[in-house]
């Protein structure tokens, strides 16, 4: 359980977004693709689980496989693969927490201390939305959101809109500057990118 959320008398949930089609990765289920002999979803779980009070996996395929990781699995409310916000909305419908931390399944360099920083700023500033930045641009699928925006997000999706950036632009946001560690946002969209990252970090021993 997050000591920070407990300190602020606030409950925090986290969702890992693993519900995409992964068209650039030959339609493989990205969360289950192996990076350094572990499924990508394992790195996201390791980053979120120590920080949040409730962890949710958003997936639209291979649901039984995802359930074996030991956390609740929720699918989008539609079967049309409407993008990351559809997964966020599904998680918001599932949780009774005060805020939800959102992170992708394909950024294995994001660790628990990065999630802690995001949550700490969300709680200390009492922001509606807190979004990670590399100092130059936002990384809009790594953010914390007050669950009171549940209805607003549902209306946004119902209007046919899908872009995360467009939804974020409708609200006042707090930014967390990760420019000193910008490589944590390295995301894996293709098998070639996966191989490149494995070579780049082959000298680091996994714990």
UniProtKB/TrEMBL annotation:
Q: Which UniProt keywords apply?
A: Cytoplasm, GTP-binding, Magnesium, Metal-binding, Molybdenum cofactor biosynthesis, Nucleotide-binding, Nucleotidyltransferase, Transferase
* Entry cofactors: Mg(2+)
Q: What domain of life does the UniProt record list for this protein's source?
A: Bacteria
The record lists the catalysed reaction(s) as: Mo-molybdopterin + GTP + H(+) = Mo-molybdopterin guanine dinucleotide + diphosphate
Q: Which NCBIfam families match?
A: molyb_mobA
HAMAP family on file: MobA
- General function of this protein: Transfers a GMP moiety from GTP to Mo-molybdopterin (Mo-MPT) cofactor (Moco or molybdenum cofactor) to form Mo-molybdopterin guanine dinucleotide (Mo-MGD) cofactor.
Similarity comment text for this entry: Belongs to the MobA family.
Q: What is this protein called?
A: Molybdenum cofactor guanylyltransferase
